[in-house]
């Protein structure tokens, strides 16, 4: 088709809005919006189908502004109540205990408070975020001109970076460089899987595309390389990326650090590549390239678009327009050049609104059609219809939790990584949205149920797109970011495995799982020096402290079978909180005192003794050691001890103070026992026994012995603790604090 | 040249040693050594120059078994005493105070204990580490046959993964996948820089090559992609990598996750590529390919070597030989096939020893020649000669510390990132081995001194190889791993910048800086919500807790100019401990009580009051807030307070208990104030005021106000703390513990 004045006017409207907003805030990144406005105009107005009045429509086209945000569901707003630990779920295990309910409701409130704060943080890297805001406003999402005028002010809905939960039309949070492209790969995986699973002859229910803009910064990041490599392997024809080839990064001309042939690299990954040389002006060329990319069904596509950063500015094509607002005189000449009144700001010609609102109306009509198709689908495929309808609400099937394995103390000792496998084996049929996987450690992470089919391009002969097992390869960081995208698509709950120590490789994306409230499950095996021979590069010391310090993350370290089931229960039912399950390589006995009901409180009394002189507070593989140490303490030191198991401190923190004090009471000393960094355990104990050094290589029992993680080593320190605190009056539980933390 | 029986015998000796050792340990990875033995034989015996009797020789060829270890300097062994915080240096600031000296000496002992433990942990990923051990033994490094027989046993010098400090001949620790190739790029950068800096006509002093073996696992990791991209940009002709193309990873055939064209990707990065199709047998082809790679001076080279994992085993070419010892009958048939006695284990034919010892003797002779050349160099270029000789001892030039800037309270307020720039500006001339850089945030990190020359290939016209400023690009993870390699080379102290929040992208390599005792400096700016508008994806919350939990890492968060100078003093003089300098974007006043001498103790009294009811313990930008809060406390609550500044808790922990109690005394309450996660602050305070949620986007003063980080917000909580603890007797300082931690 042909382009004319109105298109130019629309594009320059986006540019001037970006300029005015960054100038008003005296902060922000005008350059990218000015350079990418033309492709954004063509893509949104000619290719993308979406309904600004219902950004939740499941078959909408997805858009990711990598190192910026992704168009999405305003529902995140309504979704607040989902953005907390599933305490209702906890309650369902506690019907008998009504007084608990009340306490939970008020805890609920605090938690809601906790997560209500987090949307403020669902932020993304600034590059081009005004492009995002301008488009949302112009197409008619619930984002007003006043909102644009309050760009980057505290508590505005147009913060320094788009924040999914406060800004309708922002899909999920991306943020740090490279994340967006990887999220887009996850969204495309989810689309391919959902289509293969639900579509039927005559019912092309799910056929949306995922579009992504990325720049040189993303292209340099390793996470983006990982994601691009697996996208090529997976032959994701539903993914179309636009590479903003503007030659500028923060250090100036990319010539100083980035001279590779990016398109040749993407070809090596198996992508289809094109180049539009005049991205600032060649609207027809842009349209033809995107149309061609849509025809390529068996490969992801990338279009290299050569643009001028800050197009129109006196500083265009320089780093000067990257991260700073334009000067007043520059803005004047730019507006004159674009035919705008240099004296006016935040101007949108009515015909531009009309153009975009017309397209928005077409999107609304498309959703209507789809709704009728979906209803018809329901009459022919009721079960699938109801399954799909349920998934998008994030609710799990009725009674699924009855499938969770439970254990008796007399059951044989098993490694928690194997117990995790038993959970997956038990629930995969009742939770069809669960998609497992591993970063090339399947046989070590035990993440694959026996009958699992791999998610693979059919032509490789080793799986299909309806498959529910992901082979991420040795790509921990991309795995995490892809899972964020898969979760954001709305029809999948992703679980991915690696060694706990290598979850750190994915730290950048794990942080965004928390920021963006994705229900992502990290199956993190080989959780301590208990992995033995592989030695210190594989033995986590700092890892749990790291992720316990991360807001909105549940870090689970179960001690046995019932606690492992409890961890999965909370991970699957907490709709807005990701989880890390730290699991052992070595076998552990099943505890006398453990039940799922107790463990889902995050902490409970594993061994009670009303006359105890000390509480041993422990997690995972050390809980059973503490129970043995109780005997040693009695025999050798005549000291009575009780044991508290704290598989998840974040969930324990969400319980009532009264309950927490019943687990770690006033009046007696307490000592934590966990075979890694003690950092943070002072919050739950008076003294800490841990490992504040790197581990050692050898058979694991020898390694535990070397560091005195034995009943005797624990008892010796517990006795010293009792002695040390015997004269302190009053001896308060560490649960008692002088003031509440800000949450 | 031609190859015969003796070469085959040597290769099969390496293979059978790997098989016997893994069988004896019933653990380990025999597959890779069996497949890579031929190329190892050709490379070590025909191309590499090294002296097993002095692995310290500066011009030795370097070898990296990526995701395994790197040949090196046994000196690490002797190097133990360097592997601790520079307390001698601390003392040099304290000559007057002799009693301190004594305390330090005993702290010294504890610290030495701390770091003596760490070599056990300088581990690396197991793939092929028996190849390493076998080669070390056969060439005559101080690694005996008995050591091979104790493979993977606690306290052996042949642990599950090579450990630099206990195993002579292991250069530095690599470990997790992708690190080794990135370290190799760093070693090649260091070689290119050192050669450009020191070589003179007739004195080709530094001309070694860096060789690296890597496999599919490394090739999939993003960090390796980042490193390969910048290696191509930097045109590192001194780097030769061998890609072990064996088609197998832990999940089996790489067809399930990794079908890209790896060589085409490396060509896109600007590498020279070759393919040797019959890597198991074609020794001549291997030799020709390496010879050709050495001729290519303007590009790094990669040789794709198609091999059979577990060559000779009944399970060859399958995942079955990747991570498990061979079965007895398999070993029997393999030994028969290789012409070895199936009944004997750990057999080395004398002619194999003779062959390798002959090459080792040639290496010793080469070092002799070099020593004479270096001596002659000294007569013509005395200054450079002495500079080089000094650098390899890791000692800094006499009196360099007198260049460190000092400040008075009346000096204008400055951001600590700018104060860091002032330090670099002040010392770059006196410390020529200091090589700074940034991951594309130069203007934000302030890491570049005005007269800095970029390290670049001369033909780009924007720098040269003698340049001391690195443009790492947006590649945080590769930057960190490259700095580990640059530090390991022995003639450079690398400092690299990014935002504190994005140091997390590099967590995998940062951990290895600590494990392998590299003197690497992370310049981490924008350290808190104080960065303002950029918002929560950029505002660290969990980051400092993460790295404080990491053993052998100094985390500095200076409060002003003198503390910033102190941070650099300790970072530069602690030869075996890396540092993270967390620096502000916003301006901070200079403290009344601060001096370099006090700050290098890691913690000190910033404001004393003998009658105080509470100690406020703080870091960085919150220290001056606490000093204001002291006034508010007096005026509004009639409470007297004192303030302790703790810029580095790890260094503070190394001080005597008496000193630490003088900073955080018994008898009064204490409260920590740091505008991020409170995790871990219980160790230094009774109560904690922090931010256990994500931040917010806005002008930074508004953000601080929103979270009550104001004199009033601090005072209110301090008053609650005093009230809460007034009845506790005895009220002990948190410095008092019931027992010592394992270190």
UniProtKB/TrEMBL annotation, chains A, B:
Active site: 476 (proton donor)
Chain residues that bind substrate: 29, 322, 417, 444, 526, 534, 538, 585
Entry binding sites for thiamine diphosphate: 127, 175-177, 217, 246, 322, 502
Source superkingdom: Eukaryota
UniProt-annotated binding residues for Mg(2+): 216, 246, 248
UniProt keywords, alphabetically: Magnesium, Metal-binding, Thiamine pyrophosphate, Transferase
The record's free-text note on cofactor binding: Binds 1 Mg(2+) ion per subunit. Can also utilize other divalent metal cations, such as Ca(2+), Mn(2+) and Co(2+). Binds 1 thiamine pyrophosphate per subunit. During the reaction, the substrate forms a covalent intermediate with the cofactor.
Cofactor names: Mg(2+); Co(2+); thiamine diphosphate
First-tier enzyme category under EC: transferase
Presence of keyword Magnesium: yes
Family membership noted in the UniProt record: Belongs to the transketolase family.
Cross-referenced PANTHER family: TRANSKETOLASE, TRANSKETOLASE 1-RELATED
Protein name: transketolase
Organism: Lepidopterella palustris CBS 459.81
């Amino acid at each position: 088709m042909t382009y004319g004045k109105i298109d130019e006017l629309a594009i320059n409207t986006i540019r001037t809005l970006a300029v005015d907003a960054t100038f008003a805030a005296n902060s922000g990144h005008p350059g990218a919006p000015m350079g990418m406005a033309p492709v954004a105009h063509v893509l949104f107005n000619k290719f993308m189908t979406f309904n600004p009045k219902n950004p939740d429509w499941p078959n909408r086209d997805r858009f990711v502004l990598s190192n910026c945000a992704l168009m999405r569901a305003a529902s995140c707003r309504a979704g607040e109540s989902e953005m907390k630990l599933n305490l209702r779920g906890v309650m369902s295990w506690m019907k008998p205990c009504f007084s608990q309910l009340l306490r939970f409701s008020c805890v609920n409130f605090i938690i809601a408070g906790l997560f209500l704060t987090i949307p403020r943080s669902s932020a993304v890297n600034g590059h081009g975020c005004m492009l995002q805001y301008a488009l949302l406003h112009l197409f008619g999402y619930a984002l007003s001109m006043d909102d644009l005028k309050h760009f980057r002010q505290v508590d505005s809905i147009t913060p320094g970076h788009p924040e999914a939960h406060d800004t309708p039309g922002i899909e999920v949070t991306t943020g740090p460089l490279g994340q967006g492209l990887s999220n887009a790969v996850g969204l495309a995986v989810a689309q391919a899987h959902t289509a293969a699973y639900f579509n039927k002859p005559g019912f092309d229910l799910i056929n949306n595309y995922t579009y992504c803009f990325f720049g040189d910064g993303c292209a340099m990041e390793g996470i983006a390389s990982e994601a691009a490599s697996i996208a090529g392997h997976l032959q994701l024809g539903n993914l179309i990326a636009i590479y903003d080839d503007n030659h500028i990064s923060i250090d100036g001309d990319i010539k100083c650090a980035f001279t590779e042939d990016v398109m040749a690299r993407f070809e090596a990954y198996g992508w289809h590549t094109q180049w539009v040389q005049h991205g600032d002006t060649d609207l027809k060329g842009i349209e033809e390239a995107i149309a061609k990319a849509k025809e390529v069904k068996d490969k992801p596509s990338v279009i290299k678009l050569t643009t001028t950063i800050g197009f129109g500015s006196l500083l265009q094509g320089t780093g000067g327009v990257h991260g700073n607002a334009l000067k007043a005189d520059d803005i004047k000449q730019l507006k004159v050049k674009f035919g705008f009144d240099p004296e006016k700001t935040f101007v949108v010609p009515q015909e531009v609104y009309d153009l975009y609102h017309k397209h928005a109306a077409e999107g609304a009509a498309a959703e209507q059609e789809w709704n009728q198709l979906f209803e018809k689908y329901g009459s022919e495929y009721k079960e699938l219809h109801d399954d799909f309808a349920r998934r998008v609400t994030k609710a799990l099937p009725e009674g699924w939790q009855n499938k969770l394995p439970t254990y008796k103390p007399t059951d044989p000792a098993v490694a928690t990584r194997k117990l995790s496998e038993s959970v997956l084996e038990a629930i995969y049929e009742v939770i069809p949205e669960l998609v497992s996987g591993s970063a090339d450690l399947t046989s070590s992470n035990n993440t694959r149920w026996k009958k699992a089919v791999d998610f693979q391009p059919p032509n490789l002969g080793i799986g299909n797109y309806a498959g529910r097992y992901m082979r991420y390869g040795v790509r921990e960081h991309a795995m995490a970011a892809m899972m964020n995208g898969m979760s954001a698509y709305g029809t999948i709950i992703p679980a991915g495995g690696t060694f706990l120590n290598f979850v750190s490789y994915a730290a950048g994306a794990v942080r965004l799982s928390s920021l963006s409230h994705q229900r992502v499950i990290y199956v993190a095996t080989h959780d301590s020096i208990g992995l033995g021979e592989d030695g210190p590069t594989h033995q986590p010391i700092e890892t749990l402290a790291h992720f316990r310090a991360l807001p909105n993350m549940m870090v689970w370290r179960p001690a046995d079978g019932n606690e492992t089931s409890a961890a999965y229960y909370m991970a699957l039912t907490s709709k807005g909180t990701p989880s890390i399950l730290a699991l052992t390589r070595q076998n552990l006995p099943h505890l006398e005192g453990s039940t799922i009901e107790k463990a889902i409180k995050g902490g409970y009394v594993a061994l009670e003794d009303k006359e105890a002189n000390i509480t041993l507070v422990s997690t995972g593989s050390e809980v059973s050691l503490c129970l043995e140490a109780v005997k040693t303490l009695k025999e050798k030191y005549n000291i009575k001890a009780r044991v508290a198991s704290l598989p998840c401190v974040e969930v324990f923190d969400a319980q009532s103070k009264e309950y927490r004090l019943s687990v770690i009471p006033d009046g007696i000393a307490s000592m934590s026992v966990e075979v890694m960094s003690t950092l943070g355990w002072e919050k739950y104990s008076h003294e800490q026994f841990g490992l504040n050094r790197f581990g050692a290589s050898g058979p694991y029992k020898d390694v535990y012995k070397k560091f005195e993680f034995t009943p005797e080593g624990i008892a010796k320190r517990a006795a010293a603790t009792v002695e040390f605190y015997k004269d302190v009056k009053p001896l308060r539980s560490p649960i008692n604090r002088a003031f509440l933390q800000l949450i």
